[in-house]
Amino acid sequence: MANGAEVACLPHPVLADPRLLTKAAVAAPDSVAKLAWLQAHGTVVDERAVEFAARAGSLEAVRYLREEVRGIRPLSSGDWQGAASSGSIPIAACLHQAGCPMSHLAYVSAASCGSLDMVRWLLQVAHCPLTTEPRFLDFLVEKWGVPMGGTPVAKYRGKGWGVGEDSGLLEAVRLLMDAGCRVDEAVLKTAAKRGDLALVRLLHERGDLHVGDAVKAAATGGSPAVLRYIEASSDEWEDGLSSRVYRAAAQQGDVATLEALERMGCSCGSQRDAVAEGVTLCVQERMAGQGVRAGAREAQGVFGRET
Predict the structure, then answer these.
(1) Dihedral sign from CA coordinates of 182, 184, 189, 190
(2) Domain boundary, last residue among 46, 73, 100
(3) Could you say which of 98, 183, 191, 266 would form a disulfide bridge with 261 (CB–CB 3.0 to 4.6 Å)?
(4) Distance from C-alpha of 190 to C-alpha of 180, rounded to nearest angstrom
(5) Is residue 37 in a domain?
(6) Which of 73, 99, 126 represents a domain boundary (last residue)?
């Protein structure tokens, strides 16, 4: 949206959507001029304009909207989340001084962009409310965390960074845990199942890692690196080992995970259990090496299918 002529050439459905025009205006380098042009030409600025401007990191647009534009909604926690997601402390400070309501979800937004400075500011300066409900950390890790080199969860597929040693999310989780956020088994299982080794290590160092549950989650999720870490750093992992855990990994066809389990002394168990649970993968040779064999009919019906 460089000038009025270009806007006039836009398709009618776009011109009829004030939200699209508002988002485009606040994201422009000359956002205030664009917003003024829209108003001068009769466009109703979307009521969520302040949130859009905060997410775009435009302090000038935030100030202009608050001082010059009518019809937008009162400041809300959504505006806080917008400022936190942009990582802009000046915008957050502007909203804070204006009395914008705060929400603990602002921490999630700050962590999503890896802004440790924003997380610290929310904690230490704005004193943003922080829930100690364990589900909050689970929400943070589940929605924003991505294994290093992995794929972002579907809802936030544009966020390309993960829970790695140098990621903003790992340090954000550490800060929030230091501030009193509690951890439950859901956080642990999410981390172990997805192979977030750095987060598993953090939980282990803080004494929040139930090793048996971590072994089960890592085995079913196909996370051999987590299994190797647990084997090397703990002597309690036997609690999580069972033939059922091995067969769950076998159903996924994950040879690396099977190898990690075998090094820990875990095996498939009986032929009958293996067949009953539908071990349909290319692990027939591995099972045969452990003395587990299926009959001809079972081999054709169970082990003969490719994955």
Answers:
(1) negative
(2) 73
(3) 266
(4) 20
(5) yes
(6) 73
User: What's the rounded Cα separation, in Å, for the pair 104 and 122?
Assistant: 9
Q: Global pTM? A: 0.65
The count of domains in the chain is: 2
Can you tell me which residue has the tokens 């440790």?
A: 116
- On the CB side of 92, CA atoms within 13 Å amount to 28
The answer to the question of residue 263 being in a domain is: yes
* Residue 32 confidence class, pLDDT cut points 50, 70, 90: very high
Does some domain include residue 280? yes
Task: From residue 290, give the alpha-carbon distance in Å to each of 72, 267, 268.
Answer: 69, 8, 8
Residue 98 counted as domain residue = no
Q: Tabulate helix, strand, coil % of the chain (nearest 5).
A: 60, 0, 40
Find, among 289, 252, 288, 249, the residue nearest to 299 by Cα.
288
* Averaged pLDDT of the chain: 75
DSSP state of 303: I
- Cα distance between residue 98 and residue 90, in whole Å: 12
User: Range of 305's domain?
Assistant: 210-307
